[in-house]
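> forwarded from #structure-qc
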């Protein structure tokens, strides 16, 4: 019986440390789901939290910057579709909060992205540049 409790505790601890709770209130970041940086209105923030990008789809203008802000969990941001990176942008290896990654979009178009470890469970997003 102790083995079952230990295993259950270990699995719960793994998910708590690696996937986040989904609570956007932690980490010292604003709890709004999409906000422009107070310091620079040309920066739009996307929260990286739990298994979601919030908001999952954003519309920006050419030459605006998107700042992904890790709130909880261990994630990365890779451009591409169907869980296959296309090399347009990448935050690099997975990392835990607190972390930020920025990319300036100079051209119009649709730019899908995903979190590599969580893409298969739907952690995807899209930047649409008008």
């Amino acid at each position: 019986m102790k083995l079952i409790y230990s295993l259950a505790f270990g699995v719960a601890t793994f998910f708590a440390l690696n996937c986040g709770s989904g609570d956007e209130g932690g980490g010292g970041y604003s709890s709004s789901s999409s906000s422009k940086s107070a310091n620079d209105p040309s920066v739009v923030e996307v929260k990286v939290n739990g298994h979601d990008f919030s908001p999952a789809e954003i519309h920006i203008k050419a030459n605006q910057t998107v700042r992904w802000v890790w709130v909880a969990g261990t994630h990365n941001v890779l451009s591409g579709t169907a869980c296959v990176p296309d090399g347009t942008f990448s935050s690099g290896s997975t990392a835990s909060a607190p972390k930020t990654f920025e990319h300036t979009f100079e051209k119009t178009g649709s730019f899908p992205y995903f979190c590599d470890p969580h893409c298969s469970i739907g952690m995807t997003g899209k930047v649409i540049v008008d």
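QC bot note: The helical segments are 2-19. The radius of gyration is 16 Å.
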